[in-house]
Amino acid sequence: MSYLKIKNVEKTFGKFKALNNINFEIERGEFICFLGPSGCGKTTLLRIIAGLENVDSGEIFLKDENITKKHPAKRNMSIVFQSYALFPNLTVGENIAYGMKNKKIPKDIIQKKIDESLELVGLRGQENKYPNELSGGQQQRVALARAISYSPDILLLDEPLSALDAKVREKLRNDIKNIQKKLGITTIMVTHDQEEALSMSDRIIVMDNAKIVQVGTPQDIYENPANNFIGDFIGKVNKFEINGTKVMARPEDISLADEQTDNFFMGTLESWEYMGSYYRLKVNKKNYIIEVDICRNKIAHIPLKKDQHIFLKVERTLGGGVEWS
Fold this sequence. Notes:
Elements: E1 4-13, E2 16-26, E3 31-35, H1 42-50, E4 57-62, E5 65-66, E6 77-80, H2 92-102, H3 107-120, H4 136-148, E7 154-158, H5 166-183, E8 186-191, H6 194-200, E9 203-208, E10 211-216, H7 218-223, H8 228-233, E11 238-242, E12 245-249, E13 254-256, E14 264-274, E15 278-285, E16 288-295, H9 296-299, E17 309-314
Parallel strand pairs: 3-8, 3-9, 6-7, 7-8
Antiparallel strand pairs: 1-2, 1-4, 4-5, 9-10, 11-12, 13-17, 14-15, 14-17, 15-16
Helix pairs in contact: 2-3, 2-4, 3-4
GO molecular function: ATP binding; ATP hydrolysis activity; transmembrane transporter activity
Organism: Cetobacterium somerae ATCC BAA-474
Pfam families: ABC_tran (PF00005)
């Protein structure tokens, strides 16, 4: 039995089709990412699950109960927004307690939940501070603490990391995943960031133009994209020919080769970028520009020069439904 089931959901805003025949199922305890470009329908779908938008047609089931027309407050879901959505005139503790007070939860239990949730998000001792006394990352942690404090059936995350700087985003990304696993909360996160989706989710639902275009594990979607859009949206795809054979490969699946190696090919080095842990080479092979990611310690001994000949080998070709075009 699926925990959450979305069946034939459609949504239109005026003449704009926001969601087109959406169907999928989620198991209890899964971490799911809705991934896609801006305007693809992922946030609308999240809001429909939360009950903040109504469907034009279709149904939503939670634990076998049809909740399509159920009021948002009755769905036992919590949502964390990109903008934090904290009350500026309330302390951290009061922000966390706000929803629980509306549910008439006893004061002693509320205090216990505040303490537990702040401990989980790493903000113990910050209960009496106001939002403007906290950093952006800390404010998002308060929003997360508030969301998990009353044990929702589903935790919804609407691009929760996009407003944060890179280092804070990476740390909070890891913390969210660890908290989700510890609590076992079924979680759905909207993101346009491929790295977030690949590193955090159990499964990814890729969307484009109001439709679901692929559902799968991060590894399956990265290594076996269903079509050209997914292949290019999640990473880079090189397309070139070797001895008349059409080849498609990710930059990291091409390696340096000796001239004597089987299945090698030669190209001309156009340019290179130092990326820290690796170099990204751009190699010209008969007017195909191929991007190649080489680990730093495998290339550090080689003096790179523009227009030098370089020998490469394809270690793995791309699977799935990507087509040569």
